[in-house]
Design goal:
This protein is an alpha/beta fold. The protein has 2 domains: about 280 residues, TIM Barrel; about 45 residues, no CATH class.
């Protein structure tokens, strides 16, 4: 049974077609002129280590490839085509508009380009619907480091909300400063009526999940470190908040698939959704995620529940949710 129909946690810069990214990197001067595709591949995966801070450096290369409107459109349209070819009905693609202003684009220009790319992809590949999530960023040694950029991210997301943009995220290295210091940004987002998710409890302490809950997001990205303490896990259950779980992305050399807490989360009744995070860096897709979970003993019934959780938690409008639930009901009933 095909249960992999929705992906709510999918980063554009971590999910590029690798050959396309190489050719664009050459064209845009992001790599040396004589760099071969094989050498580029080595660069992309060289930082795939236990050190999360170093691992994040690979995103800088991919962001350097995506500094022009036409490239953002092309990359997004290609990703939509790939998702539809794999049988997905709905996906939310996230990126950080503030990371794409090096060549003169404004944040609003960058967000509009990705929205336009998604629209182009949907037109060329009927049967899939896409929402765009714009990411605020953890940077520097305090939340004040890039507060102006993050406030601008909120502003442009509000301006394009309902016009292709569907929500906000907070991404980056969650250990660089007290996590709760980002609370004022989420207060502003709530005032603007923008649906929110945030990366928490992925690479940091499980207590970050409690901080996240206090900031009242609609979902939490990853959140798996809530299993570090029964009180954290209970808080997630009490809140009934969906977790955007990305198993392959979190599996490192010292953590195999069977050691990932996803099965415990399912057993406890957490609202788990299954996602890919960074398809290229994690060498995965949604079909692979569901296949690996089946190998671990996760049942089709549990995977269907995860997919329905995703439909219920999606930042889409009512008409899209009705369409999506109809598709799932027709397939799963």
């Amino acid at each position: 049974m095909q249960t992999a129909r929705i992906d709510l946690h999918l980063h554009l810069d971590g999910s590029l077609n690798l050959r396309w990214a190489y050719e664009k990197a050459l064209q845009r001067g992001a790599i040396a002129p004589g760099c071969s595709f094989e050498e580029f591949y080595g660069i992309v995966y060289a930082n795939n280590t236990k050190d999360r801070a170093l691992s994040i450096l690979k995103f800088e290369l991919m962001c350097d490839v995506l500094q022009y409107r036409e490239d953002l459109i092309d990359a997004t349209a290609q990703l939509v085509r790939t998702l539809r070819e794999e049988g997905l009905y709905y996906a939310e693609i996230r990126f950080a508009s503030q990371q794409h202003t090096k060549a003169g684009l404004t944040q609003q220009d960058a967000l509009q380009a990705v929205i336009d790319g998604a629209a182009e992809g949907m037109t060329a590949n009927p049967g899939i619907r896409i929402g765009i999530i714009n990411c605020m960023m953890h940077k520097g040694d305090s939340a004040a480091f890039n507060i102006a950029e993050n406030l601008e991210t909120i502003r442009v997301t509000k301006a394009l909300l309902g016009k292709g943009a569907v929500g906000l995220d907070l991404a980056g290295f969650e250990n660089n400063c007290p996590f709760i210091d980002y609370a004022p940004l989420f207060e502003e987002a709530h005032r603007e009526g923008i649906p929110c998710t945030m990366h928490a409890g992925e690479m940091g302490e499980g207590s970050h999940v409690l901080d996240a809950l206090s900031m009242k997001p609609d979902r939490i990205g990853h959140g798996v470190n809530c299993v570090q303490d029964p009180a954290y896990l209970q808080a997630v259950l009490d809140a009934g908040i969906p977790l955007e779980v990305c198993v392959s992305s979190n599996v490192k050399r010292d953590l195999n698939y069977a050691a990932h807490p996803v099965r415990l989360l399912l057993e406890k009744g957490v609202k788990v959704t299954i996602n890919t995070d960074n398809r290229v860096f994690a060498r995965t897709n949604t079909l692979h995620e569901h296949m690996m979970l089946r190998m671990l003993g996760v049942t089709d019934e549990q995977l269907i529940r995860c997919t329905r959780n995703a439909a219920e938690a999606a930042f889409c409008d009512g008409e899209t949710r009705e369409w999506l639930c109809y598709r799932l009901d027709k397939e799963f009933c």
